[in-house]
Amino acid sequence: MSQKPLNRFRPNRLIDQPMKIKTFSLIAAASLALSGMAFAGAKTYEVTGPVLEVNDSMIVVQKGKDRWELDRDSSTKVTGDVKVGDKVHISYTMTAKDVEVKAAKAEKGTKKEKASPAASPKS
After folding, report:
1. Whose C-alpha in 13, 59, 87, 116 is 20 to 30 A from the C-alpha of 94?
2. How far apart are the C-alpha atoms of 84 and 61, rounded to whole Å?
3. Domain range spanning residue 64?
4. CA distances from residue 72 to 10, 69, 87, 90, 93 in whole angstroms, order as listed
């Protein structure tokens, strides 16, 4: 008849436990850091000035001598009722909607020079 050991203590189980906690903590910290970078989004810009024109799809603001037309939609957060003549502060981002790539042209001033015989290695 075989006897079961009275002591079921496994020393390797206690050694592995702190390592699992450290590993889990590092993974959690890394995922939080990466998720923060993913939601950073585009750079935000600002413009302040009097409203020249306003409708459901855009707000026109005077900044110095320049006229700024900013598009808006139903997701644009507006606090208050915007009217012509009101001074407003607008935060906006610039996001590309379409990108077309064209081949770069060679500069007119540069000429391709032929390799001189002196520059080539001698056999």
Report:
1. 87
2. 9
3. 44-93
4. 66, 10, 17, 11, 12
In a domain, 7, yes or no: no
Q: What are 71-111's pLDDT values in tens digits? A: 999 889 999 999 999 999 999 988 888 999 998 887 666 55
Coil vs helix vs strand at 32: helix
3 falls within a domain: no
* 29 falls within a domain: no
In a domain, 104, yes or no: no
Q: Looking at this protein, which amino acid is placed at residue 1?
A: M
Which CATH number fits the domain that encloses residue 79?
2.40.50
In terms of C-beta distances under 8 Å and separation of at least 24 residues, what long-range contacts does 30-38 make, across chains too? none
Rounded CA gap, 44 and 94, in Å? 8
pTM: 0.49
Domain total for the chain? 1
Which residues, including other chains, have CB under 8 Å from residue 73's CB and lie 6 or more apart? Answer: 57
